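Posting this for the archive.
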Amino acid sequence: MNRSLQQAFDFLDESNAVYELLSSLSDKEFNQPTQFKGWSFNDVIGHLHVWNYAADISLSDGEDWVEFSNKALKALGSGSSMNQFERTITNNIKGKELLEVWKNYFTEMSDRFASADPKKRVKWMGPDMSVRSSISARHMETWAHAQELYDSLGVKRINHDRIKNIVIIGNNTFKWCYTVHNRKLPSNTPYLKLTSPSGEIWEFNNYSDENYITGLAEEFCQVVTQVRNIKDVNLDVTGSDANEWMSIAQCFAGPAETPPAPGTRKMVAR
């Protein structure tokens, strides 16, 4: 792979880690529900595959993208669920067959992103974005949805410093959180001081001793992707702005979503 775009390599590594997690499961085990809206493992992998495909075809900005986006808007606008629409794209394949299709596609796709111009603008269901932002978003969604798989299997996740891509998205969507929740935007983004999985310190925004968030980077990622409630992690959140942000944080597009209730997203004891 041409590794000129590091985010493409990070996406590939994250996806391969999830593949390894699931590779020994039986077809039947892919039917088990997760703590995310009752989605099954099949639903999760199908969702990741379909939107990987969407991001990939947006690179060429041709008829494939126009056809896909029109079909998605029509289906979702008619009341179909996300999963129902996605099954029309995957032809409702399941289990190990779906897993292999997903793996083969994300492997080839990461090569195409790695060799693309990082600053090129590509289409999406919302505003256009750069190639770098597009593959970073795929990394973020892969990481976030994988959490319900790790949780359901009772496997403690081992994170790596590639989650910095997710931290950056989480921090950059501070304004978005307030916009989508129709709240007044504070004048300053709270100071972030996070410890990476390797022990490195990552700092963002202007220093403040009044509004700040400190702690593990992976726990910040869990909150901004809404795979954990802020009360279920050990972040030190100080100040009214910091606390409000963490109560409504969502680094993904779409309408305002309510974070999971405390205690509802957690690793299952095995």
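The domain at 164-248 is CATH 3.30.1050 (Nonspecific Lipid-transfer Protein; Chain A). The mean pLDDT is 95.
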